[in-house]
Amino acid sequence: MNLLEIKGISKIYGNVKALQNVDLEVKRGEWLAVMGPSGSGKTTMMNIIGCMDKPTEGAVILDGKDISKESARSLTATRREKIGLIFQQFHLIHYLTAVENIMVAQYYHSMPDEDEALRALDRVGLLERAKHLPSQLSGGEQQRVCIARALINYPMLILADEPTGNLDEANEGIVMDLFRQLHEEGSTIVVVTHDPEVAEEAQRTVVLEHGRVARIAYNVIAPPIIL
Amino acid sequence: MFWRLIRGALFRQKGKMLMIAFTIALGASLATAMLNVMLDVGDKVNQELKTYGANIQVIPKEASLLGDLYGLGEDSGAAERYLRESELGSLKTIFWAFNIVDFAPYLNVRAQLLDESPDAAKTGGEEIRLVGAWFAKHLDLPTGESVDTGMRNMKSWWEVDGEWLTDADEDAAMAGSLLAERAGLAAGDRIRVGAQGGTRELTITGIFNAGSDEDERLYVPLKTAQAMAGRAGVVSSVEVSALTTPDNELSRRAAQNPKSLSTKEWETWYCTAYVSAICYQIEEALGDSVAKPIRQVAESEGAILEKTQLLMLLITILSLAGSALGISNLVTAGVMERSREIGLLKALGANNAPVSWLVLTEVLLTGAVGGAAGYFAGLGFAQIIGHTVFGSAISIKPMVIPLVGLLVLAVILAGSIPSIRLLLSLRPAEVLHGR
Amino acid sequence: MTRQAMYVKMITSSLLRRRSRMAVALLAVAVGATILSGLVTIYYDIPRQMGQEFRSYGANLIFIAPPGGDTSGEGVSEAAAAEALSYIPDSAVVGVAPYRYKSAKINEQPFMAAGTDLEGARKASPYWFVAGEWPQDDGFVLIGQEVADTVRLLPGSSFTLTGTDDGGESFSKDLQVSGVVQTGGSEEAFIFLSLSDFDAAIGGNGNYDVVECSISAPQAELEGIAAQISENVSGLTPRLVKRVTQSEGTVLTKLQALVFLVTAVVLVLTMICVATTMMAVVTERRKEIGLKKALGAPDRSIMQEFLGEGLFLGCVGGICGVFLGFAFAQIIGINVFSRSVSFQPLLIPLTIAASALITVLACAVPVRRAVEVDPAIVLRGE
Question: How far apart are CA C101 and CA C120, in angstroms?
């Protein structure tokens, strides 16, 4: 069954058509990469999938519910409940420690739970860095905190925007390992990137060009789904 | 290119720059208003203190103050001395003429209240003190100017039941409350008063309550008093209300003996509105006269003026310090926000100096616009204060402009230079990566 | 951990770990609060402080013999004067000087001798300018400038006062001049003796001709006191010295209006300054707001967090401001008036509430604007 179904969406800013009649389906447990050059509509796509924007036309059905007509308020609630966001710029709150940054997500979602947040940090291998401020963490560590934060509320969909864009090769490897692990555990992942190496890791790659889906590639070398 | 960068910064981030300009404008308007008010408050309060009446009394040389007291002296046989009424206009021609707010001559006459009116209740033959005075006299000076002066302005605390006398009304009089009570007088009554120079029938236009021994007297226009005393063209004393500068060491020494001063000191003293200098000039203008400061008024005025000015000065300093802190805060925040841009410029190979100049010029331009706007807004505030409190405009002092300019400059530099230095010390790579 | 604890944790972390920025904001709020509490304290203290200054104009209430009789008659008895004075609150009395008058002669020249409490006269008439010393002991007197000129006396010279006392006997008393009084008024023709000297030389019925009081009180209160005295004390008539009371009222009202307006202008401008600073501080954090929205924070939570911070800043700044402001008012009081100002306890809650309100309002505007923005734009935008 599909977790996300996008049906003929268009997004128009003034007279710029960022997306034109795009269809896309994401299955539960699938790892999908969205690729494309700058200006291809990647970001717009990600904003719509991440419930941060609404299409001008068309329907977006997430978990069986059309979110394209929802109010900003309930869109926020949907985002909180169902989406885990990972950013290129990490976007940690600089005055909160690693564990507190994770607890912020819990706080907005339901109830902050420090032990659970620490377990999440442990999972990304940063337990001993829990009390550090973002400024005391390396880029890779910050990204791992960001991933831990995205996972903390058990989202249906993990949406990552250029997750390795600001990382060196070693950290890129660590982050990709984490994604692989998540995928093996059955998470649904959408990665927006322009890096073919990152895209190759996914099961399927959707390439956008000029606001349309140019092609869809299935990755044979992707590891099989093992449950 | 430099200017293109500046233009870009100023016009494309309008919001932030407007906010800084707005805050600077607020601070500058505060400084302008406070400085203008502070510099003018002395004059304004001095004007207000004129409600205490005269601060200088002029009497003929060798005349005794004793005449004022308990009827002593006048019978002692000393020849009575007078000042000439015709010379009074020259009071407005002395160096400090502009500082003389009001003056009024008085002529004291001993008179009797005669019991010839049909109303039997009125006591007869009683000795009273009759005083001739100017009430609201219009004088044309030889210089071509004209003044309106008299005791009406100088006795603002008098409560008059009825009408104030006018100078033209030569058959009218005003009676003090104590006299009126004793003699049973009321506004509108007609009385007969006799003195050396003849008997006059006078209409009481009003009864006044002065809260002092003036309440025992009967006031008539000067001309009437002169006619009744049989002495035309003379007055026995003049009260002068003048705007003065608070006394200091120099003026105290001068008051003791003007001749003890060196030429330079003497000039300083003569050209400052000390009460003693004004007295000295009055003595020069009126022949055979002695001008004395009325210490009760002159001293107290000085004290109150000084306090008020000091108070305003401290309030001004407080508010200026406050707004300076606020603005320099905001400027710092404004500059800190530009960290990314400065990092970028440095990454592109810009040296420290041009980058600093760029940011400084931007902030200074913003400050100049804000400061100019603030200056004019501040003038408005000052006028509002002047009109509401004193009912007159605050005079605009040009020296406030450079003061405000300097202040704004200092505040902007204080707010931006440390933050620019801080930003320059950062490595471009770190800034650009948003750490 | 409860939600409340997390909320508190987020706010305190934001305040403590962003020290420099928060210091900027706190400084702005504290300066604003300082100005508020300082100026308001001064504004309330002006009538009292300036009123004291105005006492240099001398007596504003005098007691004289009740009308009806001859003015030169009985005078004011000591008992009546004491009774009348009991109606005046002690703290308001600046100086009281009772006077007895009698004409007397020096070298056969007639003058007026005045017996008074010299210490009281000094307090009640601070404008007297005395060349020489104020008399400390019996036998020493002050003479008016005119007396000094006429009889050619200097501080330190001795003279003999002659005349007839109340019993009709002639008297003569040797006295020494300790100082010469200049006032520009009729006092210059007087000889001022202490009451004991006066009684010893001239005698008398122990009654005063006039009692001069210098009282530090607003005009209305003074009128009230005078009315009370005239109603309850029979042996004398209180009279307000109109020239002093009326004029003081006029000038003081203007001065207070001046300080009021200045305070108002300064406060409005300062508060706007505080508000713009707070706005700048909050606007800087748009990205953080965007992030929180992306994490699914409802607008209300974000508002709550920022307002919480604002409230905290406002309260802390307000508390600092209360004390700094009082310290400042105290400096003004001591420098300008050489007196300490009174502390207004009501100002504590007022200042804190005002600064908290302004800070919170100043935060609310930019936060409200920021939460309306799409999180996507904030996060992507540099």
Answer: 16
Residues in chain B: 435
8 A C-beta contact, residue B334 and residue B363: yes
Residue A38: which pLDDT band, with cuts at 50, 70 and 90?
A: confident
Position B430 scores a pLDDT of 62
Segments forming the whole domain that contains residue C339: 3-52+251-380
> Domain boundary residue among C212, C240, C268?
C240
Total domain count, chain C: 2
Domain ranges of chain A: 2-218
Is the confidence at residue C72, as pLDDT, over 50?
no
Q: Are residues C235 and C282 in the same domain?
A: no
Residue B117 and residue B192 in contact, taking contact as beta carbons nearer than 8 Å: yes
- On whether both C228 and C293 belong to a single domain, the answer is no
User: What is chain B's alpha carbon radius of gyration, rounded to the nearest angstrom?
Assistant: 33
- pLDDT digit string, tens, across residues B16-29: 778 788 888 888 88
- Give strand pairing partners of B339: none
Three-class HEC string of chain A: CEEEEEEEEEEEECCEEEEEEEEEEEECCCEEEEECCCCCCHHHHHHHHCCCCCCCEEEEEECCEECCCCCHHHHHHHHHHHEEEECCCCCCCCCCCHHHHHHHHHHHHCCCCHHHHHHHHHHCCCHHHCCCCHHHCCHHHHHHHHHHHHHCCCCCEEEEECCCCCCCHHHHHHHHHHHHHHHHCCCEEEEECCCHHHHHCCCEEEEEECCEEEEEEECCCCCCCCC
* A95 at interface of C, judged by CB pairs closer than 8 A: yes
* A79 and chain C in contact, CB less than 8 A: yes
Model pLDDT, residue A59: 92
For the stretch A73-122, pLDDT in tens is: 888 888 888 999 898 888 888 888 999 899 888 888 888 888 999 999 99
Is residue B431 predicted with pLDDT exceeding 80? Answer: no
How high is the pLDDT of residue C189?
A: 84
Residues C190 and C299 in one domain: no
Sequence-ordered alpha helix ranges (H) in chain C: 3-17, 19-54, 78-85, 118-124, 145-151, 195-201, 219-232, 242-283, 286-294, 299-332, 347-372, 375-380
User: Which residues have a Cβ under 8 Å from the Cβ of C236 and sit 6 or more positions away?
Assistant: C63, C64, C65, C66, C76, C77, C80, C81, C84, C211, C229
In degrees and rounded to multiples of 5, residue B130 shows phi and psi of: -105, 130
Interchain contact C292–A (C-beta under 8 A): yes
SS3 call for C205: coil
Under the phi-then-psi rule, with left for phi > 0, alpha for psi from -120 to 50, and beta for the rest, what region is B391?
A: left
Judge whether B118 and B201 are in contact, CB under 8 Å. Answer: no
Residue C304 has pLDDT above 90, yes or no: no
Residue C351 is assigned to a structural domain of this protein: yes
Residues 226-245 of C with CB under 8 A from B: 239-245
Give the HSE-up count for residue B233: Cα atoms under 13 Å, Cβ half-sphere.
Answer: 3
Q: Which of C210, C240, C270 is the last residue of a domain?
A: C240
Instruction: Please give the average per-residue pLDDT across B33-39, as a whole number.
Output: 87
Mean pLDDT (whole number) for B238-251: 85
How far is Cα C110 from Cα B353, in angstroms, rounded to an integer? 87
Class of domain A2-218 (CATH, top level): alpha beta
Å between B307 CA and nearest CA of chain C: 6
0.90 surpassed by pTM: no
Are B19 and C276 a contacting pair at CB < 8 A? yes
Residues in chain A with CB shorter than 8 Å from the CB of C3 are 107, 111-112
The tokens describing B288, both together, are: 């055979």
Note whether C267 and C321 are within 8 A (CB). no
Q: Is residue C245 part of a domain?
A: no
CA distance C303 to chain A (A): 13
Q: How confident is the model at residue B161 (pLDDT cuts 50, 70, 90)?
A: confident
What tokens does B260 get?
């003890």
